[in-house]
Write a structure and sequence with these properties.
Blueprint (H helix, E strand, L loop, with lengths): L17 H11 L22 H14 L2 H4 L3 E3 L8 H4 L8 H15 L5 E3 L28 H16 L1 H5 L1 E8 L2 E8 L2 E8 L5 E6 L10 E3 L3 E6 L4 E7 L3 E5 L1
Parallel strand pairs: 1-2
Antiparallel strand pairs: 3-4, 4-5, 5-10, 6-9, 7-10, 8-9
Helix pairs in contact: 1-2, 1-5, 5-6
């Protein structure tokens, strides 16, 4: 919910940022969300959002608080008060496990490239499921049960956030929001980083004009998408081919 009354400089420096949580789940999990786990919660990660709908929610959030507060917000995908995202996305229930894990992977990419302090609820990094409280507070699983692929991409994204200051404190600019494709840039000093997500179920090829970036990032830091720059005197165009249910980072 809108927390401006708590963030006026006289009380808190930041709050649990469910205004990020809800649209991020609604975009990445969409209609896969298991309603019984969320319909009695106040943060409402539904109905499903397409990329323009997600962009509108994120831009509203970024305009809601001063930038200094955005950088101290506790961004999260789930917590001790909610069902775990893997279960919300249908893991082990309505959706096949692989589909639910795709939703978690996309949401984690958005979490770890967003301004603020990312919070990973214990066990999410090894694919721990859990319904509403108290099931969301299960014990940490033994190592033999860890999902190593999930752990690896968490480590990779955390390392990229540590290694690229723009992903921590750089400004945030939406570059494209079309269909189920959402692309934005983080910029700081001379560094630009582009993050792209295709939350849809088909491969998407998008070409768009990129203006006012500090650089033309072309190295694929994360993901396996294809990127081609067309640089002209009066405009720069970037073409991306994004596999279904995937994301990438260019730096």
């Amino acid at each position: 919910e809108d927390s401006r009354e708590w963030l006026d400089g006289s009380q808190f420096d930041g709050v649990m940022n469910y205004l990020f949580t809800a649209p991020t789940i609604a975009f990445t999990a969409g209609d896969r969300v298991v309603m019984e786990y969320v319909e009695k919660q106040s943060y409402e990660p539904y109905p499903a959002l397409d990329a323009p709908g997600y962009a509108a929610k994120i831009e509203h959030l970024l305009q809601l608080y001063p930038w200094e507060i955005q950088l101290t917000q506790l961004n999260l995908l789930d917590s001790h008060d909610t069902a775990r995202l893997l279960s919300i996305a249908g893991g082990g229930k309505e959706s096949p496990q692989a589909e639910a894990e795709e939703s978690v992977k996309l949401a984690t990419l958005l979490l770890l490239t967003f301004p603020g302090a990312p919070s990973i609820y214990y066990g999410d990094e090894v694919s721990l499921a859990g319904a509403v409280d108290p099931d969301c507070r299960r014990g940490f699983p033994p190592e033999v049960e860890w999902n190593r692929e999930v752990l690896d991409y968490h480590r990779q994204l955390i390392a990229l956030r540590h290694g690229h200051p723009a992903l921590r404190t750089g400004n945030y600019q939406v570059l494209l929001a079309e269909g189920m494709v959402y692309i934005f840039a983080r910029q700081l000093a001379t560094e630009s980083v582009i993050v792209a997500v295709n939350a849809g179920t088909t491969t998407e090829k998008v070409s768009f004009k990129v203006a006012e970036l500090l650089s033309q990032p072309s190295q694929m830091l994360y993901g396996n998408s294809e990127a081609v720059w067309n640089i002209a005197e009066d405009s720069n165009y970037l073409t991306l081919q994004l596999p279904p249910r995937s994301g990438c980072i260019l730096g």
